């Protein structure tokens, strides 16, 4: 007998690896791509080994963008919130939820239910969202539950409701491939919905007749696909589409039969468009008459058209009107309810649509029923068996933070969103949260700008641990499956909400054993007393067994007896969901943005997304791989404007608005001829966690659309001036604690993390020599310091056991070493040669490292080798892929490769964007 084996504990006996396939959904954008994950092990000792797109998922057919491709690189448990905290101290769950429930009870007793609010997120799963909405509206008895989706697609929701009687997105992704005309309005899909953009590219190749129009003040990467780019004056979209409606009328391009049988309000709407002839439109939109006319002619003549719209439409003080102006044109030309046609609002977040379904906005009830409608209220209350039901709409996001600031709301529970960064009027949001009696934050990370204000921090489970459903932009419900156990004591959002509900005395109504049960209740509610009144009907998904729920295949709602496999396209029968069953035209006035430029604030501030980052970077910021494309926030500005300001590329400028608060925003300049003059663009992702002056939200004043309540986040009015600092520099330090200590000494800092070392751009109001002396005083005595001074510049290299711990270079004007070279110097496995030390001290780098910026993150291909191949004859993206592999994996850089080819005049005739094996 083998005694050794007998004495070995069971867990140490080598077990054969258990391999399995986990199928789930990407947690980022509203495309809703399926991902396949190969898992190893079981129970608590499971690991996720590799990830690919799900070949059979109808949203992506196997493709993923760069963010999805790198999901596993950001999924470790570092920086995860692991335990509940009360005023910064670890407590157990019972203490935390007792505290939350007691506070809610106390505030309701003293000030009424409207003094309590939830601020939730389109990144919650439908099941989380459902219980949060049910608790607030049916049991606490207020409608004060609003969501970051207010900042995202509430204008589209309001427009759909006005036109169709219900919040219904008529189209699906196949329409993008079946259309003859694709109009992208206020969407940078190449970066923000990359897998859909790849489908558009492919459609373009298959159908040479397909034309693409991009309507965006900036010339974005999306324009690589465009036949026409209309660089519209910001905020002027209503004029453009009002003009289109008039043009359709003037050129016999109306669908009179459809207008007559399926719509109402056409005559008044057309009358409101009469002032908008070609000249007036061109002048209002800052375009030429020829540009306007060629777009109009194409729309009028095209047998089908999809208008794909996003934040350039929604995030506006006339966002709802912009969306209705688009819808009007589709109704008038009958380009709706048929293949390849329709006004297609594209959602940003993975579950913005699911949130809409459960009614997670302050002006909705649940299952597309209305708060103002007493029949709906009664119906929902009875279904929930609830003690009460909110009788009027609650505070919408901007008003909510104002109400907190005014002391009207005394308790707020924030879930899965980072409003201190993402809301406009940051100064007010910070003040409101600092004043609020109780701020509860459920999040997955230990630090973000909002958690700084939390009295209670609750650790939620994250993607890869959560179990439930999400609905994408084309109404497709997909399962997100929990593959890993939540780390530490983290719990699922729905569990946390239900536990608090139970402690409030509502245990019976929140006694769910699993997300499957919650989903079932939601599906039943959509079907309950529906009678064809509401399109949102999931009766075909009611009563699923836990196994059926677990195996649920992606399906587009409505799912009913008549559409058991789901429904790809709405309104094919020309029946809408208004009282008359007819679609409504909305007559629209052209209004200017509210935060207007003036002599004091002459520049228009536009803001939006970068290719590789997700929102406030709590996840995508964790891997240096996703920071290589854009390492730092920059302000894109037209060359003439930078000349007028006297700033050159990479120099720091200060940005101020009338609502700025005390400190300015400070960003380095990126000179970009693709900007319109007088308009600048900044990315939204960087926050106070990332830099001392990266608080963009303070520059937008909270002006919002009167119908939807959606804040304007594309049109701030700002003043720009060169930032005055006496010294500028670069800091790299491998000791994280020391790094933070040093940053705190600088007047300006902005993190640029690398793999082996923390680095930052810094600046101060003292001389380089003085700052160096001050920082050196904070260093441990045992370290070896070598410094080098030349004129007003100074460099400092600090070594421990011959390994670099710190590198600091300070100058009167900013210069920096390339990040990847610096990073390689700090590689703990590398050797620091004398030559490298000398280069560092002289602030120089060997030429071989200067390969330009990273273009393809998957294969680490940089700008210079690509340009060299283009110079050497590569004339298509495909050819570049063959030579360097760039663009052949996730494809996110292909539009950029295409731009590089076009810029260098090398693009071949044939559209260069397809790669072998893309979507079939
Ligand atoms: N990489 C990445 N992808 C994302 C996200 C992310 O954080 N990172 N977030 C997701 C989310 S939640 C969302 S909502 C979507 C947003 O997706 P998009 O809406 O595509 O992205 P944005 O960059 O916010 O803005 C789109 C464009 O609107 C333009 N614009 C500004 N003003 C106007 C105007 O007045 N008229 C017109 N026609 N255009 C205007 C801007 O110049 C910008 O290029 O992206 C989703 N996808
Ligand atoms: N200036 C400007 N501002 C904007 C925009 C703009 O274009 N310009 N866009 C707006 C838009 S469209 C959007 S959608 C918002 C997005 O803005 P936010 O929603 O505020 O940004 P995120 O970084 O996505 O915040 C999500 C938070 O939830 C946490 N989290 C992740 N998963 C989970 C989970 O499962 N459970 C819990 N409890 N927490 C989780 C993350 O760590 C993070 O802190 O920004 C808006 N703000
Ligand atoms: S396009 Fe990218 S971010 Fe969006 S769902 Fe697909 S993989 Fe995720
Ligand atoms: Mo969004």
TrEMBL record:
The keyword Phosphoprotein does not apply. It holds the Pfam family Molydop_binding. Gene3D superfamilies: 2.40.40.20, 3.40.50.740, ADC-like domains, BFD-like [2Fe-2S]-binding domain, Dimethylsulfoxide Reductase, domain 2. GO terms for biological process: cellular respiration; nitrate assimilation. Residues 19-79 form the 4Fe-4S Mo/W bis-MGD-type domain. One of its GO terms (cellular component) is oxidoreductase complex. GO terms for molecular function: 4 iron, 4 sulfur cluster binding; metal ion binding; molybdopterin cofactor binding; oxidoreductase activity. Keywords: 4Fe-4S, Iron, Iron-sulfur, Metal-binding, Molybdenum, Nitrate assimilation, Oxidoreductase. The keyword Transcription does not apply. Its cofactor is Mo-bis(molybdopterin guanine dinucleotide); [4Fe-4S] cluster. Belongs to the prokaryotic molybdopterin-containing oxidoreductase family. NasA/NapA/NarB subfamily. This is Nitrate reductase.
């Amino acid at each position: 007998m083998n005694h050794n084996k007998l004495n070995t504990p069971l867990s140490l006996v080598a077990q054969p690896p258990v391999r399995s396939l986990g199928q789930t959904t990407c947690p980022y954008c509203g495309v809703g791509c399926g991902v396949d994950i190969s898992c190893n092990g079981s129970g608590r000792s499971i690991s996720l080994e590799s990830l690919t797109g799900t070949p059979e998922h109808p949203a992506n057919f196997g493709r993923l963008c760069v963010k999805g491709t790198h999901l596993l690189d950001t999924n470790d448990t570092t920086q995860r919130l692991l335990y509940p905290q009360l005023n910064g101290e670890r407590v157990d769950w019972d203490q935390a939820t007792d505290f939350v429930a007691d506070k809610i009870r106390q505030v309701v007793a003293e000030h009424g239910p409207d003094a309590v609010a939830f601020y939730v997120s389109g990144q919650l799963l439908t099941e989380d969202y459902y219980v949060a909405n049910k608790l607030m509206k049916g049991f606490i008895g207020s409608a004060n539950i609003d969501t970051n989706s207010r900042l995202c697609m509430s204008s589209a929701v309001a427009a759909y409701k006005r036109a169709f009687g219900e919040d219904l997105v008529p189209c699906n992704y196949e329409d993008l491939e079946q259309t003859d005309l694709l109009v992208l309005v206020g969407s940078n899909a190449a970066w923000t919905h990359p897998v859909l953009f790849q489908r558009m590219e492919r459609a373009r190749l298959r159908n040479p007749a397909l034309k693409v129009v991009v309507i965006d003040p900036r010339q974005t990467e999306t324009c690589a696909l465009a036949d026409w780019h209309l660089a519209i004056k910001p905020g002027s979209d209503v004029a453009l589409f009002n003009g289109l409606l008039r043009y359709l009328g003037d050129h016999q391009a109306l669908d009179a039969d459809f207008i007559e049988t399926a719509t109402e309000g056409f005559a008044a709407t057309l009358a409101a468009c009469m002032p908008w002839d070609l000249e007036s439109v061109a002048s209002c939109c800052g375009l030429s008459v020829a540009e306007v006319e060629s777009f109009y002619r194409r729309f009028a003549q095209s047998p089908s058209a999809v208008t794909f719209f996003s934040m350039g439409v929604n995030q506006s003080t006339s966002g709802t009107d912009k969306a209705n102006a688009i819808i009007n044109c589709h109704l008038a030309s009958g380009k709706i309810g048929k293949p390849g046609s329709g006004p297609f609002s594209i959602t940003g977040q993975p579950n913005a649509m699911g949130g809409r379904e459960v009614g997670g906005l302050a002006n909705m009830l649940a299952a597309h029923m209305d708060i103002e409608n007493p029949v709906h209220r009664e119906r929902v209350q009875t279904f929930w068996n609830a003690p009460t039901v909110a009788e009027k709409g609650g505070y919408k996001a901007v008003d909510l933070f104002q109400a907190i600031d005014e002391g009207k709301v005394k308790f707020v529970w924030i879930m899965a969103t980072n409003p201190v960064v993402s809301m406009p009027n940051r100064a007010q949001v910070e003040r409101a949260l600092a004043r609020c009696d109780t701020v509860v934050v459920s999040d997955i990370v230990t630090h973000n700008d909002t958690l700084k204000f939390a009295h209670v921090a609750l650790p939620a489970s994250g993607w890869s641990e959560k179990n439930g459903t999400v609905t994408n932009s084309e109404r497709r419900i997909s399962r997100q499956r929990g593959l890993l156990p939540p780390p530490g004591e983290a719990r699922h959002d729905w569990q946390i909400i239900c536990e608090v509900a139970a402690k409030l005395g509502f245990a019976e109504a929140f006694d769910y054993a699993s997300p499957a049960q919650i989903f079932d209740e939601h599906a039943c509610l959509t079907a309950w007393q529906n009678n064809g009144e509401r399109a949102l009907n999931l009766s075909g998904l009611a009563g699923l067994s836990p196994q059926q729920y677990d195996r649920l295949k992606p399906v587009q709602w409505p799912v009913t007896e008549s559409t058991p496999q789901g429904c790809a396209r709405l309104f094919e029968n020309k029946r809408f969901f208004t009282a008359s069953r007819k679609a409504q035209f909305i007559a629209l006035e052209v209004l200017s943005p509210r935060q207007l430029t003036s002599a004091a604030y002459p520049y228009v501030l536009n803001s939006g997304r970068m290719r590789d980052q997700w929102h406030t970077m709590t996840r995508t910021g964790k891997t240096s791989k996703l920071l290589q494309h854009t390492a730092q926030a920059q302000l894109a500005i037209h060359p003439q404007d930078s000349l007028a300001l006297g700033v050159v590329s990479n120099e720091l400028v200060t940005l101020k608005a009338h609502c700025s608060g005390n400190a300015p925003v400070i960003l380095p300049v990126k000179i970009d001829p693709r900007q319109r003059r007088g308009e600048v663009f900044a990315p939204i992702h960087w926050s106070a966690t990332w830099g001392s002056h990266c608080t963009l939200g303070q520059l937008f004043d909270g002006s919002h659309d009167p119908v939807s309540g959606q804040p304007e986040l594309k049109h701030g009015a700002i003043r720009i001036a060169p930032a005055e600092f006496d010294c500028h520099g670069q800091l790299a330090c491998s000791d994280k604690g020391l790094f933070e200590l040093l940053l705190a000494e600088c007047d300006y800092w902005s993190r640029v993390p690398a793999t082996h070392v923390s680095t930052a751009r810094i600046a101060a109001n003292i001389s380089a020599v003085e700052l160096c002396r001050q920082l050196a005083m904070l260093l441990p005595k045992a370290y070896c310091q070598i410094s080098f001074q030349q004129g007003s510049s100074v460099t400092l290299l600090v070594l421990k056991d011959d390994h670099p711990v710190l590198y600091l270079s300070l100058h009167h004007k900013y210069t920096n070493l390339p990040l990847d070279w610096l990073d390689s110097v700090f590689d703990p496995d590398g050797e620091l040669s004398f030559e490298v030390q000398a280069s560092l001290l002289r602030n120089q780098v060997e030429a071989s490292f200067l390969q330009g910026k990273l273009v393809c993150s998957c294969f680490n291909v940089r700008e210079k080798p690509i340009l060299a191949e283009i110079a050497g004859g590569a004339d298509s993206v495909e050819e570049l892929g063959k030579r360097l592999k760039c663009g052949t994996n996730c494809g996110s850089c292909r539009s950029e490769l295409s731009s590089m080819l076009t810029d260098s005049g090398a693009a071949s005739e044939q559209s260069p964007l397809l790669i072998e094996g893309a979507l079939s």
